[in-house]
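Obj: model holo form, ligand = 5-amino-5-deoxy-1-O-phosphono-D-mannitol.
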Amino acid sequence: MCGIVGYIGNKNAFDYLIKGLERLEYRGYDSAGVALLDEELKVYKTQGKVKDLVHVVQDQNIQGSLGIGHTRWATHGAPNYANAHPHISQSGSLAMIHNGIIENYATIKKALENRGRTFASDTDTEVLLQLIEEIQEKNGVELYEAVRLALNEVIGAYAIVLIDQKNPNILIGAKKGSPLVVGIGQNKGEYFIASDATPIIEYTRQVSYLEDEEIVIIEKGELSIKTLENVEKTPFIQELSISLEAIEKGGYEHFMLKEIFEQPTSISNSLRGRFSPTELRFAMSSLIEYEDKIKNLKRIIIVACGTSWHSGLIGEYLIEDFARLPVEVEYASEFRYRNPIITEDDLVIAISQSGETADTLAALELAKSKGATIYGICNVVGSSIARLTDAGAYTHAGPEIGVASTKAFTAQVSVLTLLSLGLAQIRGAIGTQKLREMLSGLEVIPKQVESLLKECDNLCREISEKYHEASNFLYLGRGYNFPIALEGALKLKEISYIHAEGYPAAEMKHGPIALIDENMPIIVIATKRGHYEKIVSNIQEIKARNGVVIAIVSKGDNEVKALADFAIEIPDVEDALVPLLSIIPLQLISYYIAVLRGCNVDQPRNLAKSVTVE
Ligand code: M6R
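Output (holo structure tokens):
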């Protein structure tokens, strides 16, 4: 939930830390801070964003070739100066940054207070730091050993990095549940450490992702890894494949807009090499390796959160339609705390852009413990969820930086479409003709998205101009477009702070119809193939009550066009492929409305990109 970064080498750490924090800011932006060790340990921090920190320190000459930095999404304690990281130990010698939650912090804090420790913040991080220092002082042990012993006492999730004024040649990190990656710099003795590879990519491609319960010690230019049980591990160094351009704005005003316009490429990447529409063959290793299991599957359970949950709903429609397998789609946060019935015959699919969402991860661990086969659809390569699964398919959408998920969503839906068709083929549930139609349709989706983006952009701006001051929006859809209604509403509310609700269109008459007046825009996804007549009736009902209708229609539709205040045309494709197109104008409308309202599109208030806390 927070972003952490560290540097040790022979250059000034400050610039690396600031640049790194800017790249990690999508993870949280309640406060920012750095600690650098030169002759003495100095901490600079502020409530607010990295740019506020830069402003605060602009006249200072900050030096130090060892440093750590943090950008915070507040969990324990208000987002103020005192709670901003880095935190300093009572003696003033240790500085630490943390991403995660120490669940038993209250008990530990009480015990530390009884033994005379005082605290400067309300955070769980400071509790862990004081515990480390107490162990270091009382037991007279090295910093690494104090960290190891302290971590054996805590319950919860953490990625931490520490520096010590008394040991100017050492940087220590550790992780459990929250990600941490070490970059091996090109200059001798130079190392980077961060929550993800984005702050590192500019300087090196050689990285090592830490496993849970591992501690990394970088001392006098040497890297070593040990476990919480004090077992030495050989670092597994791998080559990064993401590019620097992929994590920069590339001329767009916001990452979100760039990511919306990247969708022709990202969808194409999510499909590339995975199927042949002529030979009707799938080249997905997960389908090939698990063929027998798939034949005998009784049920699929999909677990996810937020936007990924919406793509899970589309997955349900797809898999039930084509593979004729029962599917349940669960909010991971509910599923993990119920007493769900999971058997060894189940396939549990986790969908997650980040691959780090705490609730999804925990739901998956639960399913695994009950013997289900677990499958991951993740975007971030090497993420915790991806590593936990038995099988899976990466979405290959490329780094998604904007907090509002756009290209990750369409990549997830693309993979789910392929998966449903692959499952259907293995189970003999789909005819050749239908499979050919679907795969041929899927193949041209990237091109259709590209044209649609060009064609609907101006109209989406015009609609946004007209309705950006509305206080409420309703989104309606049926069948495959019901999850799109939910996703459209989520996009609008999270970045523009307008109250928006998504509903199955037929449910309107069971309550939401009471909301209709001439002030509330209603976005109706009314494409030709699915339940068209029914949704036309719903539009009639809205118009009869003077409602404002913005319709998403299939090309060539005249009936809905005549009724609606605005109509945005999308290509007339197979019903099951519509979501990949109908979401596009909804993403654009949310974006333009948020910009017109002066909102911070890429970093909406109170949110963070990856939710690594429950
Ligand atoms: O990384 P994940 O896909 O697991 O994240 C799940 C949600 O937190 C995420 O989709 C969230 O709802 C987005 N802000 C939506 O745009």
